[in-house]
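Field guide to reading this record: the first block holds the primary sequence, the second block holds the structure written as discrete tokens, and the final block holds curator observations. Each block starts with its own label. This record concerns PQQ-binding-like beta-propeller repeat protein, catalogued under organism Streptomyces cyaneofuscatus.

BLOCK 1 — SEQUENCE
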Amino acid sequence: MTDRPQPWYTPGPPQQPVPGNPYAQEGSGPPPPGPPPPPRRRRFGGAPALAVAVVLLLVAAAGGVYAVTDGTWGRSAAPVAKEPPGPASSAPAPSATPPGAPAARTPQPQKIPTTAEIDAARKPGDATAWIVDDRTDLPRGNHRAHDLWTVEGAVVQALHRKVAAYRLSDGAELWSVPLPTAVCETPANPAPDGKVVIVRQERPDDERGNRCNQLQMIDLRTGKQGWHKKLPETGSGDNSFIVYSAISGGTFAIARSMKATAYRVADGSELYDIPWENPGKCYPDDVAGGSRLLVSSDCAISMDRSKNYSQLREIDPRTGKVLWRHRTSPGWKFGSLISVDPVVFTTVNAEDTTSGWRVVALGPKGKLRTTIDPREKGFEHCAGSGSGGEIQPCRGTAAGPDHVVLGGTDRVGVYDLATGKFVWGIKSGDPLRTLHPLRAEKGKAALVYESASSDGPGRTFLMGPGGAGTEKVLLKHPAAASAPETRMAGGRLAYVDGRVVITSSGVSGLDTDRQARMLSFAPTTTKP
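BLOCK 2 — STRUCTURE
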């Protein structure tokens, strides 16, 4: 094995399609089945047909990467090099068992490497790294790790009853805010001044009937808590057990119990209610924020699913005025938001909940721009993870002004938002790896995170607009961090100033199932 970074792709002469390869030629059959998308909303109407493309199958070594350029799939050599296991992969020796006695299996906590151990095992060309091993005692069960926020040199996240900030340069904990009850919802982004509003449970117990109705403002720059208030009851049908929130500008919006309300982030004062439209038939059910405030609604609720539809509205965050509306076709429901600007989202079909989904892009004033069907390339809704009920974010996706990037299990690809056509893509030879776009770049390029697997460490690379053969590895992740990185599986990702930050989407409360809290990689030129 060489210490030099191994390229994903080495150009070779065109070859004939491999028999049985579903990516060798368009129209050669349906993609392999995958896990079903989340049981939430369904898909949108018809998509423009993708043109039949010619295959460019390139010379490959086993376990290489399939590459797609100009709408075609090919194959490339140079698989990801296997590295020796680092400190995290060493397992404790089994205890001796008397002859004839049944083997006793005592669960052992997983060894989590330290930052120093990862650094000591780095090879030439490896990225620098830090790791957070949070020893906070958590109750049994799985606990959701909420949205990642980056602000003024720190990355912040809420988990169970704590919000903590870690310094981006070295992972040191800067501050933490203990909370009396568990956090149940966070907006995808904070306000421009670094303030955020989290939603936590009413009681400290885990019993049924514990509402998610406590609002708490926190300044992410300092860790200081601001105002706190309890959401008012919405009536006899109040069921504030599942809520969704978003921040746009200085406005915090929350949807629950078929009702949506906006508050001022600075002081918690109520600004306006986001009304029903066509009362009795169209009620707000989710919100999304950022540079726009978007509100989705379920409409024409009927036992006949084919008659139901969704409506998306852009709301002026300061006044509550509706700026535009977009309505799906009957039988199609809003799925998850990929981008606020441009507005790109998924839709799912009420009659085909397993595999029926599309990508929809809107133009000015909510007018339909294009509809894309990514299923024939094997892409799954929100990278196969679903949205967890919330519409923001759609995991494993990114969008720019003229293209959308879709990732997921062993593949990533780009579609043109103007034409709906497939532009390029790559397919990893390792089904245990996930490829997550971090950002859409100019010229239909993409910044991509590739997770680690049992075969080796992950990496972060830039794929140029030409697709296969144009990738540039930005971060070669150290092998010593492979075990904790593999467990995280790209659950939550942030990219800031050349640094990628990774956490799991959930953390176990079992002592025998301990896992790293956070992991980060940066170029060797990055200075603390």
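BLOCK 3 — OBSERVATIONS
The mean pLDDT is 80.
The first helix runs from residue 115 to 120.
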